[in-house]
Fold:
Amino acid sequence: MSETLPSLTANGQKLIDRLLTLPQGWVTAAMLAESIGVSRRTVLRELPSVEQWIAAAGYRFVRSPGQGLLLDEPPARREQMRALLNGSTVYAELPRRQRRQKLLGMLLQAREPMKTAALARELLVSESTLAADLDEIGQWVSSYAVTLHRRPGVGVWLKGEKLSCRRAAAALLQSSLTEEELQAVLRGNFAAGGAFAALLNTKIAERVWQVLQQFEQKEKLRLPDAGFLTLAIHCTLAVQQLREQGGSSAAVHPPENAAQRLGAALGQAFGLTLPTEEVQYLEQYLAAYITGDDGEKWGAGEMHLRHLTGRLISEVERVMRVDFSGYASLRDNLFTHLRPMLLRVREQIHMDNPQLDTIQREYPQLWAATRAACDTVEMELALPHIPDSEAAYLAMHFGAVLEQNGALRQAARVVVACPLGMSSSRFLASRIEGEFPTLKVDGCCSVRELDPEQLHSRGIDLVIATVPLELAYPSITVNPALLEPDRALLRDAVQRLNGTVRTGTPAEPSAASTAEGGLRYTYRLTRSMVQMLDHLCIRTVCKPVSRQGLIDAASRLFCPNEDASRLVAQQLRRREAMGDTYIKPLFALLLHCRTKAVSDCRFGYLQAQPPVYEAGKMIMGAFVLLAPDTDDPIPVEVMRMVSAQLIEEPELIERLRTGQRDAAVQLLEEKLDRLFSEHGN
Structure:
């Protein structure tokens, strides 16, 4: 029968699977949307095909305007339906961002108008969805002085100067790459970056990469990875266009500057002569990325630039209420960064910043202060608009200082490698040094600069990178945001390095080496773990209605005494006011605090029946973690281990949600025992 069933999109299959998983009863489109991580509009768009599939399969699905959606089938029939679903045909539907990237690439390649009906068929979307995509693309290309044209009966096309179209294409390619693809492309492996093959001749790109690397060596300069990539893409597109136009091979005058020498090298490699306007662009581009004194080409004097640096610092100080006066390096680093940045802004040379979302999400106060400072200096000094991508790099400079501390560092020497430029590397390096005083960051570099022999000769113990490395040297990969799994990975690395690195003086003695001695530390850590496991509790909260209902239940979970329960509730609400504790991947709250209401660590799970629905959130339950409010670091260490397991062990979450207390205790005991053993070693 499955052979006659209509095809489903991936989202359509997810919707049916979720309907089969949820308890029998009415659900809303919003509830389904939240449960599979899509918008309500996406659910409504998919419902007709879902209804068609369910009807063709012979099952009953009801839509009621007043009640919602109902899969009206008993459990046995649902299992039969699931078997059919697993064997049904699913056609690939690109996520919106990827779909729009593909559409833009098709338009940039096109030599004539493209029909909207053909584009919609190619992208597997309706013409109304295509129209929305074209609206957004039109806005995006306008920032590069490119215009999107639409004419009924003719089609859709882009119009702009070739240099403008080239800038847009370069920005598209950079934004299309994952970090793994970015690393591969930076190393000249274009097969791994599928987006490149669509817009670039990979054979030309390979030769351009070689010319640019030779150029860097001869000129004794090092472009940041992002700058190298943008320049390489631009040069590849320029060579492609010149070849299509039948470029000449006439002799050129002896080169006088770096841009002319690069133009001559490209011309020699491809038997072409780069026009004057192309060489002028190369000159502007190199000035926008070379940070030395020779790079000051934008026309502002040094005093103006120093004033701009000072105003940015004072504005961030004012908004964040901090004092940067003791950090001369911040002023120098900003001054050096601003010189080429302002040229990029003036010349509309796009510099992608993949960490923009992370900065905005993980450091909202820092981001707001930096963005406000940029807006202020724009108005005061009549500057061109500073894009968010550039402002985020400035935020990284401030963030690097804010993350610094004065701790001494042990002799374990590490190098931070990042394909995003020095500001990203310094930001991550400062976070590592701030949170891991036993690691000494001995420099930052791009992924292209990593050389095992040089690392060995410098005595580097470990490379910490933001992308997976194909490197014959000890290395780990972390997220630049340094999330809890990354911290756990670094802690594990520190443990392994402690047995191999040269001796040094740690910033502070570990708990095991204090006056108490290792034996007492072992006893206290073990006791805290056992106490927590003995008291692990799972409860169902009937009709919690709101988040507050779960908080009230959490306060009573381990505190039957009314006064103690009231204290915990106040502290949980106070923690909630500091920042949302909802963890979307877990569909749960992480209710936690330090409190005098408990004498040992407490951990439990509250199952919400039914789930609590907020705007954009489905709360299926709440994890409750309480630690005693004392100066003792042991309970905090135990709770840190537990929270890490919630992220790293999906099986633990499943056992808690299904009420398998003993199984959850056993699994958690096994994981903590392994972590404790590693700690003790």
About this structure: The CA atoms of residues 291 and 624 lie 50 Å apart. The longest strand covers residues 602-614.
